Amino acid sequence: MEIMVFFSLLLLACSVSTNPIDAEIENHDQQISNQQPSLQDIHAVLRELTASLTEQKMRMAFLEKEKQATQVAFSAFLMNQGNGYTGPFNTLFTLIFKRAVTNIGNAYNPSTGIFTAPVRGVYHFDWKVYGKENIQAGALLYRNGEKISIAYELPTSGGVSASNAASLLLQAGDQVSVRLLANSRIYENPDNHNTFSGHLLFTM
């Protein structure tokens, strides 16, 4: 009788005991399950990646725009082709240098003759006019409505050129142009005597 009770207890103990190997496997599976990211975690990571990529794209676009804004240079001739006189007029006349051979940054408008500063900085400008036949040839550089300087010659015989240059601090949006002096006349031919040029020296 005692033997039967002993074996019964032994079988019961075996049935309720857990195999150590099985317990270790179960514990490992539970750890793996706990380590697996949830769908919510995956969405959060994707949102962070999207925000980071968007920020990088915006920064690259800003840097590219800034780079383009600091690359400014132009050079323009008075006429696209042919020859002829401009002036005289009884008042100042904005010269339109129609043939822009260089216009990096597109700050110069060959339809109006006006240069518009894209950024605050110091710009350098050169202008030259050509006249002949005893009529004065003069042109003024203007910043917005302010007269800066003049290029002027009075031919006595043949043809003469007048030129000048200036470096100006401009605010973004400031406009620079060359205006023919009242009662002046200039002459142009395919040699392109009359020119207007400028470029950005540095930003400020």
Architecture overview:
- It is a single chain.
- The strands form three sheets. Strands 3, 5, 6, 8, 9 and 11 form a six-stranded antiparallel beta sheet that branches. A five-stranded antiparallel beta sheet has the order 4-1-13-7-10, with no helix packed on it.
- The chain has helices at 2-16, 20-35, 39-69; strands spanning 73-77, 84-86, 93-94, 99-104, 108-109, 114-116, 121-132, 137-143, 146-153, 159-170, 175-180, 186-188, 195-203.
- With 204 residues, it is an alpha+beta fold.
- The longest helix is centred in the first third of the chain and has 31 residues, at 39-69.
- The termini are far apart.
- The chain is built from three helices and 13 strands; from the N terminus they run H-H-H-E-E-E-E-E-E-E-E-E-E-E-E-E.
Residue-averaged pLDDT: 86
| Percent of residues in beta strands | 35-45%
Tell me roughly what share of residues is in helical segments.
Answer: 25-40%
In terms of structural class, how would the helical and strand content be classed?
Answer: alpha+beta
Helix-strand string: HHHEEEEEEEEEEEEE
Using the CA coordinates, give the radius of gyration.
Answer: 40 Å
Number of E strands:
13
- The backbone outline, from C-alpha atoms, is rod-shaped
Mind summarizing the main beta sheet? 6 strands, antiparallel
| Span between termini | 106 Å
Unreliable stretches: none
Total of helices: 3
Give the gist of this structure.
With 204 residues, the protein is of the alpha+beta class. 30% of the residues lie in helices and 38% in strands. Strand 5 and strand 6 form a beta hairpin.
